[in-house]
Amino acid sequence: MISVNNVTLAYGKRVLFDEVNISFVKGNCYGVIGANGAGKSTFIKILSGEIEPNKGTVSITPGERMAVLRQDQFGFDEVSVLHTVMMGHQKMWDLMNEKDALYMKEDFTEADGMKAGEMEHQFGEMGGYTAESDAAQFLNELGVKEEMHQMLMKDIGGNIKVRVLLAQALFGNPDILLLDEPTNNLDVETISWLENFLADYQNIVLVVSHDRHFL
Ligand SMILES: Nc1ncnc2c1ncn2[C@@H]1O[C@H](COP(=O)(O)OP(=O)(O)OP(=O)(O)O)[C@@H](O)[C@H]1O
Ligand SMILES: [Mg+2]
Fold first, then answer.
1. Pairing relation of β-strands 14-24 and 2-11?
2. What is the pTM of this model?
3. How far apart are CA 112 and CA 94, in angstroms?
4. pLDDT higher for 46 or 72?
5. Shortest CA distance to 26 belongs to which of 125, 173, 180?
6. Most exposed of 16, 53, 141, 161 (fewest Cβ within 10 Å)?
7. Within this chain, do residues 158 and 208 fall inside the same structural domain, yes or no?
8. What tens digit of pLDDT does each residue of 144-199 get?
9. Domain that holds residue 96
């Protein structure tokens, strides 16, 4: 669950949110609509923590994971397509790197062994062992062919990039999924794939869209 408590935000004299209280619960897909400039994107950014409200708080159920669709097309230039998707589950990704660094230690002690065991356990619970194949499957479903998976993000076209970033947001079954205008840069095929994906989604989805048909 995400709870928004007494959230207030103003830019100068323009009050976008005044003492907003609302909760979003598991199993629902919420459509956020409103006129241009009403504050939809700002609201999504408040939920994700990218923007701090002037007053009030946003809290999510402890242990739940939030994923956001990135609009930044150049944020992963030096990363491979496959790894970009896996990075969608930040905690799993960080743990994987920490774990690898630990195994690389030259003076690997018994204590390190214990620590590694714990990390492996956690990693397994996060679905780490199937992460690579899960990410590849997502990409394939989205029409990003196998031969592109090892390419760097900077070397692929914009229309493929948006699919990769979509796969990144959806990867690892996030408890809370925030999508701001997801259909903007997508082709019709991918839009219809996303419609089906979201229709079956069991967690919380918040989607901002001007596309009535999509909503
Ligand atoms: N950093 C900022 N400083 C000042 N004003 C801002 C800032 N960010 C957004 N605004 C203003 O806040 C209002 C809400 O912006 P926001 O981008 O959230 O609207 P939106 O509902 O997402 O619009 P659109 O439908 O065009 O995407 C707009 O009037 C915008 O100009
Ligand atoms: Mg917006």
1. antiparallel
2. 0.92
3. 17
4. 46
5. 173
6. 141
7. no
8. 999 999 999 999 999 999 999 999 999 999 999 999 999 988 999 999 999 999 99
9. 67-174
Q: How far apart are CA 215 and CA 102, in angstroms?
A: 46
Which amino acid, one-letter code, is at 16? L
Interval between CA 33 and ligand 2 midpoint (Å): 10
Contact 178/68 with Cβ under 8 angstroms?
yes
Tell me if 51 CB under 6 Å of ligand 1: no
Find out whether the beta carbon of 17 lies less than 6 Å from any atom of ligand 1: no
Does residue 139 share a domain with residue 92?
yes
Answer yes or no: are the C-beta atoms of 209 and 40 closer than 8 Å: no
| Domains identified in the chain, total number | 2
Structure tokens belonging to residue 62: 């402890």
CATH number for 46: 3.40.50.300
Same domain, 9 and 91: no
Please give the distance, rounded to the nearest whole angstrom, from the Cα atom of residue 39 to the centre of ligand 2. Answer: 7
| Per-residue tokens: 213 | 């048909």
Q: Based on the fold, state whether residues 185 and 155 are members of the same structural domain.
A: no
166 and 195 in a common domain? no
Q: Which residues are 9's β-sheet partners?
A: 17
